[in-house]
Amino acid sequence: MRLMTKVSLIAVAVFTLTACNKEAEQPKPLTLDTDAAKQSYSLGVSAGRFIDSTIKEHEKLGLPLASDVILRGIQDQLAGKAQLTEEEVQKVMVALEQTAREKQTELAKAQAEQNIAAGKAYLEQNAKKPGVTVTESGLQYEVVQAADGPKPKATDVVRVHYTGTLTDGTEFDSSKERGPAQFPLNQVIKGWTEGVQLMSVGSKFKFTIPSDLAYGERDMGTIPANSVLVFDVELLGIGEEAEQPKAEEATK
User: Is residue 205 annotated as a catalytic residue, yes or no?
Assistant: First the structure.
């Protein structure tokens, strides 16, 4: 999280001078007819966006910040009338940043626990659907389109088309627009390594992968920690390549 300690004082000052005039009922007309004016205004807008996002981030953590007090602090500093010493300001900001980190950790832990419970419930329901097979590891798969082609080994390089979604249907990756993905099968998540070995070239499978066979407790950006992942996979081919492309991000 970016905190106020990381804000450029110049940017904040410009924001205050260009966007904050609390005594005036309406702002004066502004003409942006020079590079300096546009640069100054852009710097102010950037600082304003940062302040707004910082306030919203802290609100999510249960740490409300008052925009009017923030701007008053800027004005007082510019006027040389700050009501806290530099040492006091630094002490408060360090404490705020520490509290924010602790809150983030608490929220992340709570969300991870919710994901575990939700994932377990989803897997239990999905396992009851007709056509779904559950392996010893807990991997669930459904044969969407059968084929009689060869099956890969874990040490093979495979070429696939795939789409990956969360259990709520949110798509986080797909090869459909980029073109087929190619990678060594033993260099991807466990659920892929196990599941694709069950496929014949030309077949299409749907895999529902428990979090411990995917990314586990790791938060992968658009993929929250402890997430069950759903992949629609088509195995296009098997073959060793002189130069093997890196594994796709969604399956590392």
Answer: no
